[in-house]
Amino acid sequence: MPEQSAAYTFEDLSGPSPTSTPSTPTTDPNPYTPLITSSPSPSHIPTRYATHRTTRALQQRTTLLSPSFPGPLIDPILRRLVLTPSTCAPDPRHCLVLWARPPPHIRALASHIQTTLAAVLPALWAMPAANLHCTALEVAHSRSAADVAALVAGLRVNGAAARAVDLLAERERRGESRCVLGRPVVTYDAAAVALSFLPDEGAGAGGAEQGLVEQAVGFVRGAVPRGVLGAAGVGEDKEEVEEEREGCYTYHHLRRDLWDICSETSSRNTVGSAGAGVPIASRYTVPSAHLTLMRFISAADVTVGGGEDGAIDMSKMEAFVGAIEQLNAWLEKEVWGTARGGWTVGEEMGLDLRAGTVWYGGGESVMVGRGFDG
Question: I need a surface site. Which of 9, 59, 98, 277 has the fewest CB within 10 A?
Fold first, then answer.
């Protein structure tokens, strides 16, 4: 069976930039800036996230249900850590990341999804609840321990690490709008299963309601939503749009600001200081907010006869995809629009600056930010 590589690539499938853009083009090296500055209205950001999610889901569904599907991408390091923990070599890939930790009700939702899918494919590895995370910024990956230690030291310069982990708590203290994620959908590829969220454009859980419903319903029903890259903001009063833009703070804005705090090449000063002086080497900056829930460490669940190297049993792949589609229909009907379906990033626990072997939720917390009450 094929194995997953650390060089696994991530493609932005959110579509082309809108034709209606601000008059001043950005020259900012921050990779998260263009989507923000080119958005004709705040609703465009969650729309782009929804488009990426929908397009990738349809792409992956086609791949996994194709008669030529070669099998799941097995994670060889995780497989060894799980199956032969006493004899395998330690994970050599040290990383440095900023994580957003989900609150208890999202962890409970994740657990329900894991239990449901484990009944279909028992060999899937499930991320422990305490390890669940959403990577807001990946500073470095697959480096040596010494490399990561040097980066941590760089982020401590001028208090950059503390500013990063406490960014959302400081916004809360100043009474600024919150960073909210909602509309959960189970997504998957040949390597893993995740719980994906869409950013909310406003201060509360209902701010982007109407636009996100249309996008996510299209995903659940297997159709690309109509007009996802339509003329957002067309017909709106320019001053009204600019006022909305100023008050908008999405998950994408959070990613932008964390990059600015940490990067040696930051040209913006969004949080009161220049960049911290470390290079950022993220594997991807695609418009996605997700918690990895499960990974493939064996092909036995999906082969004819249950062996590791047997032919793929397409009825088993169909059962797996079908179970996910049933979960998504349930999420749409029972979870969206309720308190269980969204979360305010930074609530209860601030951002977690994590170093070491973090690939499966491990590593060590360098610094954890202050949380705040809901």
Answer: 9
On whether residue 1 sits in a domain, the answer given is no
User: Contact, 335 vs 118, CB < 8 A?
Assistant: no
Is 71 a member of any domain? yes
CA distance 370 to 169: 6
Q: In 3-state terms, what secondary structure has residue 231?
A: coil
CA distance linking residue 143 with residue 163, whole number of Å: 24
Q: What integer pLDDT is reported at residue 307 of this predicted model? A: 82
E-strand spans in the chain? 94-100, 125-126, 134-143, 180-188, 192-199, 289-295, 343-344, 352-356, 364-368
Domain coverage including residue 259: 33-368
Q: How many domains does the chain have?
A: 1
355 found inside a domain:
yes
Q: pLDDT for 288-333, tens place per residue?
A: 999 999 999 999 999 998 888 889 999 999 999 999 999 999 999 9
Please state whether 236 falls in left (phi above 0), alpha (psi between -120 and 50) or beta: beta
Token readout for 151 is 């980066």
In a domain, 161, yes or no: yes
d(CA 248, CA 42): 6
Residue ranges with strand state E in 72-179: 94-100, 125-126, 134-143
